[in-house]
Write a structure and sequence with these properties.
By secondary structure, the protein is mainly alpha-helical. The model has no long low-confidence stretch (mean pLDDT 82). It has two domains: 35 residues; 82 residues. It is flat.
């Protein structure tokens, strides 16, 4: 032993050492198990609903004539691809809005607020937001300048009389 080791702790290779015991009341255990069951059931219900919808769609397609089935499958695939494209376009528009906000000295987290139907509308929204923020900042600065002293606690040591 080196002298820096904890002598109250059992050696790591001691198989007879008592494991650390955690205590939990039956009520705590029941609450925990209830939460686990609820979360598991919710997740299972979502998965079951999704699988049921897929199964129902396959049954519907199977009942159709070959020509109608192929047409319905194409429409479903087209809808899926259009949804993916719309999602990708929105993501790209969000990135563009975030970049434009940063260029204007605003927080990129405001992108969701200023996002418009197209890039021009988004730029107009950003310009309007910047104008409002600048006006608010100017008003606060003017108000502080009028008082002649900094707010309490800010720069007090610098402005104290000797």
């Amino acid at each position: 032993m080196t002298g820096t080791e904890d002598k109250s702790a059992p050696p790591a290779d001691d198989v007879n050492a008592e494991p650390t015991k955690l205590s939990m009341t039956q009520e705590d255990l029941n609450n925990l198990m209830g939460k686990v069951r609820t979360e598991s059931k919710t997740q299972s219900d979502k998965e079951i609903a999704k699988l049921k919808a897929e199964y129902d769609e396959k049954l519907r397609l199977a009942a159709l004539k070959e020509e109608d089935r192929v047409k319905a499958e194409r429409e479903a695939e087209s809808k899926r691809l259009n949804d993916e494209l719309a999602s990708a376009r929105r993501e790209l528009a969000m990135k563009s809005a975030e970049s434009e906000l940063v260029k204007n000295g605003l927080d990129a987290e405001l992108a969701e607020i200023v996002l418009g139907k197209d890039e021009d509308e988004t730029k107009k929204n950003i310009a309007g937001l910047k104008k409002q923020v600048d006006a608010m900042v100017k008003k606060q600065l003017d108000d502080r300048i009028k008082t002649g002293a900094p707010p309490k606690g800010i720069g007090a040591a610098v402005f104290q009389d000797p």
